Amino acid sequence: MRIAFLGLGIMGAPMAANLVKAGHQVTTWNRSPGRAVGGAVAASTAAAAVHDAEVIWFCVSDTNAVEDVLFGSGSVADALKSGAIIADSSTILPSASLRFAQQLRAKGIEYVDVPVTGSKTGAENGELIFIVGGSENVLEKLHPLFAAMGKKVVRVGEQGKGVAAKICMNLNIGLIYEGLAEGLVLARKLGVAPEKLSELIMASMLRSGVAEYKLPVILAQDFTPNFPLRLMHKDLRLMLEAAKEVGVQLPGTEAVEKIYTECARNGHDDDDYAATITVLEKMASLSS
Ligand code: NA7
């Protein structure tokens, strides 16, 4: 298939590389020049990347970035032919996703939300889980591409439901991780070694995917970003905004968002979100 891949960040670059590996004709574009994917053609503008594509895959930071690329100067929407499919893996506000789809449908362009879970490692290994929203008909056409980049596709419902489910999943990840981090900080302050608490967590019902993935990171104090804190912070804000739109209170999420604001102030934006523990440690006067 002829694919334009827009956004070669931590997730986008390995996803595009896996499409090339699967034999697709990939043209890439990234806002800042100098990012390339072996075997793909690099275009100098988004409009040039998409003009001949059957599928346009987005993987950019946030709602504003998607809107900019779709409808801003050098608009992708204007460069596309009727019948093109846009698959958006960016995690954005669900109501904005619905709005984009409506605007594009008026031009004969399908827009489906296909956010992912699995972090950098999942993207590199082609083991992402796609959490998708859109008509079965359109999604069916994307199956060879999902297969090239992921290990599972879950259709949540119509357009917009994929990204809605995604932010609810990240709500869980963000809050579970913060519970883990706070437990470890209090334990240390009470004289319990983090290694001992980790052993107990993994042997008991507290064991979870989040614990399994993040405990080694905490013990090694290695906060190289798999999922940068700034993006989880963006998602926490999305959860709060989406909740406000539908009249839901999220007091736990509000509390966690405040910790992320403190982390941003402490210069942790580009660390992995696991680095929130370092700020909790600092607040507890513990050395890292
Ligand atoms: P990264 O590594 O922060 O990459 C973000 C990408 O988005 C990168 O290519 C950026 O280009 C691009 N970007 C950001 N703002 C814009 C605007 N305004 N216009 C065009 N392109 C833009 O994020 P990840 O790859 O980890 O994650 C991508 C999405 O998946 C995100 O929604 C996550 O929550 C899930 P740059 O190189 O900065 O010019």
Q: Please provide the ordered H/E string of secondary-structure elements.
A: EHEEHEHHEHEEHEHHEHHHHHH
Query: How many distinct helices?
Result: 14
Q: Cα distance, first to last residue?
A: 49 Å
- Helical content (DSSP H or I, runs of 4+): 40-55%
- Give the averaged pLDDT, no decimals: 97
Gross morphology is elongated
Quantity of strands, as a count: 9
List cofactors, ions and other ligands: ligand NA7
Mind summarizing the main beta sheet?
6 strands, parallel
Low-confidence stretches: none
Structural class: alpha/beta
- Lateral arrangement of strands in the main beta sheet: 3-2-1-4-5-6
- Work out the strand percent: 5-15%
Cα gyration radius (Å): 20 Å
Describe the structure in your own words.
The chain has 14 helices and 9 strands. The chain has helices spanning 12-21, 46-50, 63-71, 76-79, 94-105, 119-124, 136-141, 143-149, 161-189, 194-203, 209-220, 229-246, 251-265, 276-283, and strands spanning 2-6, 25-29, 41-42, 55-58, 85-88, 110-113, 116-117, 128-133, 150-157. The strands form 2 sheets. The chain has a 6-stranded parallel beta sheet with strand order 3-2-1-4-5-6. The protein has a 3-stranded mixed beta sheet with strand order 7-8-9. α9 (161-189) packs parallel to α14 (276-283) and α12 packs antiparallel against α13 (251-265). It starts with a strand and ends in a 5-residue tail after the last helix. It binds ligand NA7. Ligand NA7 binds at residues 7-12, 30-32, 59-62, 65, 68-69, 89-91, 231.
